[in-house]
Write a structure and sequence with these properties.
The protein is an alpha+beta fold and about 250 residues long. The chain is about 30% helix and about 30% strand. The structure holds uridine-5'-diphosphate.
Length: about 250
């Protein structure tokens, strides 16, 4: 499927999305691709229909957060892979919230998969492909000056609030929100807004109707670990999120 706009309006192309300028400098158009990468782009592939699914899931989740009082960059979703968003200056940080141990936390600490983290863990990673997105300590964050101490505090607090709202939402979908990654940015007035996307690409989601360690996985770990049935898992997340959103 062709992307919208002509190339002269393209602002940035990332691994999963293309960002276009619009006539309004405060508004950007995001186009969600089917391309998938993992392990710092060492593994590449396509997940058919992913762009459409992630755009739709993100739309529902941004609307859910907005209704709960969390400001996001979402403006509207004019097409099934397209989202108008507020232009942000993104902090070069990945804010990860973890409710259960998985992924890099298990690899780096030896904690068992699924170990409950109560209270949830909030971690900051430096968004830098060349450095493979390293985990930052509070002191490293301060020295690097990627955000002020006040901003770091706000990002951590907002991430926990978002976790609370999304955990509740996904629980109603019979899905466990294991962990997820957020990106935040500043709008032209200096407000901190949630940016990027919230989707099975950026969250770990386990089906509460399945106890099987492999079958329960409804997120990008199916692609990372070659578990198969990737599109079907993303589609099942979409169906449950859509059903829950129309109830609210
Ligand atoms: N994540 C992401 N983008 C990244 C790194 C992580 O969306 O560049 C998400 C990932 O999908 C998971 C959470 O952040 O939901 C925590 O990822 P982790 O640190 O465990 O890294 P991984 O195991 O994916 O290498």
């Amino acid at each position: 499927m062709a992307s919208p706009g002509n190339t002269s309006k393209k602002l940035y192309e990332g691994k999963a999305k293309i960002i276009y300028r619009t006539p309004d400098p405060q508004v950007l158009l995001t186009y969600f691709k089917d391309d998938a990468t993992a392990f710092n782009a060492q593994k590449r592939g396509q997940i058919t229909g992913k762009g459409k699914i992630n755009c739709t899931i993100s739309t529902y989740l941004f609307q859910c957060l907005e209704q709960a009082g969390i400001p996001t960059h979402w403006i509207s979703t004019p097409g099934d892979r397209q989202m108008y968003v507020k232009a942000l200056t993104i902090f070069p940080l990945e804010v990860v919230v973890r409710n259960l141990a998985a992924g890099s936390l298990c690899r780096q600490t030896g904690l068992a998969l699924g170990y409950r983290l109560d209270p949830p863990l909030v971690e900051f990673y430096y968004k830098n492909d060349a450095l493979a997105d390293p985990l930052l300590t509070p002191d490293r964050l301060r020295v690097m000056g990627l955000a002020t101490p006040d901003q770091v505090h706000i990002l951590g607090t907002k991430a926990l609030e978002i976790n609370h709202i999304l955990q509740h939402f996904f629980r109603a979908c019979a899905i466990t929100l294991v962990d997820f990654k957020l990106e935040f940015g500043l709008d032209h007035r200096g407000n901190i807004l949630l940016g990027d996307e919230i989707s099975p690409d950026t969250c770990r989601l386990w089906d509460q109707n399945s106890q099987d360690e492999t079958q329960r996985v409804m997120d990008k770990d199916r692609f990372r670990q070659d578990l198969g049935q990737v599109e079907q898992a993303y589609q099942r997340v979409l169906e449950r999120v859509a059903a829950q959103s129309t109830k609210n």
